[in-house]
Amino acid sequence: MKNATLTFGEDGNLVLADAGGRIAWQTNTANKGVVGFEVLPNGNMVLHDSKGNFIWQSFDSPTDTILVGQSLRVGGATRLVSRASQNENSDGAYSLVMESKRLVMYYKSPNSLKQYLYYTFAPSQDRLQNATLNYNPDPYDDSASEVTFDLSSGGWSVHARPKFNATLSFLRIGIDGNLRIYSYNNKVDYMAWDVAFTLFSRDGFPESECQLPERCGKFGLCEDSQCVACPLPGGLLGWSKNCEPVKPPACGSKNFYYYKLEGVDHSMSKYAGGSGPVKEDECGRKCSSDCKCMGYFYNKETSKCSIAYDLQTLTKVSNSTHVGYIKAPKK
Known about the structure:
Organism: Salix purpurea
Strand order of the largest sheet: 23-22-21-28-25
Helix content: under 10%
Shape: globular
Oligomer: single chain
Strand content: 35-45%
Protein name: Bulb-type lectin domain-containing protein
Domain Bulb-type lectin: 1-60
Number of helices: 2
Keywords: Disulfide bond, Glycoprotein, Signal
Number of strands: 29
InterPro entries: Bulb-type_lectin_dom, Bulb-type_lectin_dom_sf, G-type_lectin_kinases/EP1-like
Radius of gyration: 24 Å
């Protein structure tokens, strides 16, 4: 907000107001014994009482970012939510969520009523109480350090190993749905923030960029983290950012057909799995009876069906039993 003000009042309330004085955000800590406001070395912004006890702390309210020492936890915040855009500081389409026994990532596509799973970390045997971003110096290499997102059940979900002291690090879910660890290298004076970990990477480890729902924009076929084709009814054309699915028929119209793509997955297919088991023609009927359905994806080995309300990125896979059917109007 332009010309906004952040005010720490005598009553102990911290208030963010716009240029007209309207309250945009506040800590709601008025008359609760707050005597001090401080930003700690780890980045935690706290309001404390006369004994130093925290009455309010920013670590309890993560947005799209977790700092070293900060947690997702039962009884508190259990998710990170991406920004809508670089210029719009509102909730975006992607989230990292701590569920009872696993960490998962969800995407809410523009035309879908529900979010869907596009990545899941290995499930835990025990219930998760928290997931905390930690920093530790490397015990075997003085020039390196380790940054991990540790689970209360044991082990870690992400792991970075910068070749410098990475005390200043943070984990963020980006507007593109990717999960990254950034670490600050105090030995350089230019471009000091280094990307120490990327979940969806060009080399496919831990996961390929093709699994990102919007990797290929509105429509595209992805292989080896690259958008390689625009899969239209006439065949696979060269991909560009202008690639879009054909305009679907109007709701209520029966004047449409499906064209088939073999060896493809939708971004919801790999981890969400789909519904079923159902027969392939039943999966097709589900899409045909829903005028908002843009296509359906079927795994012949598992008999699982996925209904897509937005097509976006399709991934080329070697298994021809993974098929997609894209809705198109009859001429």
